[in-house]
Amino acid sequence: MAHRLIYWEDKEKTFEESKKSSSRVEFSKKSYGAYRVAKKNGWLDEMTWLNRKNVYKHPIDVVYKYHFKNENVVYVGRTIYPELRDKQHRTRENDTVYRFAKENNIEIPQMEILEEGLTVLQGAKRETYWAKYYEDNGITLINKLPCGSLGYMAKGKWSKIKCFEEAKKYKTRSEFQKNASQAFHISMKNGWIDEMTWMPKKEIYKKGFWNDKKNIINEAKKYKSVTEFQKKCGGAFNSARKYNILKDFKWLYKKERIINGYWKNKKMLFEEARKYSTKNEFKKCNQSAYWAAFRYNYLNEMTWFKDGRKKKA
To answer: For domain 61-147, which CATH number applies: 3.40.50, 2.60.120, 3.10.450, 3.40.1440?
Structure first.
């Protein structure tokens, strides 16, 4: 990439390249390197043939995914430069897609375009839609940041006053983040979040805190069901499953009256099964759901169970 940027330091070549486009947006899409150098050197204002279109209204955005099918995980993203973004995912060591593939010793799949020809605002909404779609269908999302964020382009929209007005709609930081991710991240970045005293700061535990089984047990006692435990304190829940002590929390497994036919709903059944790491744990903790999975031949699809993997010959 560096040698291409040096190439565009030749002003005459960059100007010739820019004349192939009618707007700055189009120029940035067709020749990002030339556009980047022109912007850095302050040449864009001299390119009077390039219209300055509103990036929010111009249909330039693309929503895409990388689906690691065997691992049942997906990365959903959004960009106006799909070719450049694909290259970044494959070469940057700190990139989420790159790191996941490397850690699991697998190849990065092809980028699949889900939707294109969207405005940036439409793209943000559709990215959120697709992320929720895959999660609702039992596929794990590996994105680190919440989908739907507009990044640097949202800065102008979210002033301090507007962020505070938006934040007052919510009782917790997680609720604020879920419903207004752009305002939340800008508030975090600028340190405004600590001034929003009506939203308590989530307790931060020291590294290794959940390695102590006493801490896990004390946390688990705060909840009435496995679902509540998993939702409100995922760290403790995952450690309980790791140390195989989840089944010891009897108070979380009080028998509930299940509506006849409840486990016929595959989505509900899979959500329940994902709470457990082995088939034996699943069977012991929720027999009705386990036997429904057995009856409908779903157990083989539940590939996350440790005792369900085939041993190599």
So the answer is: 3.40.1440
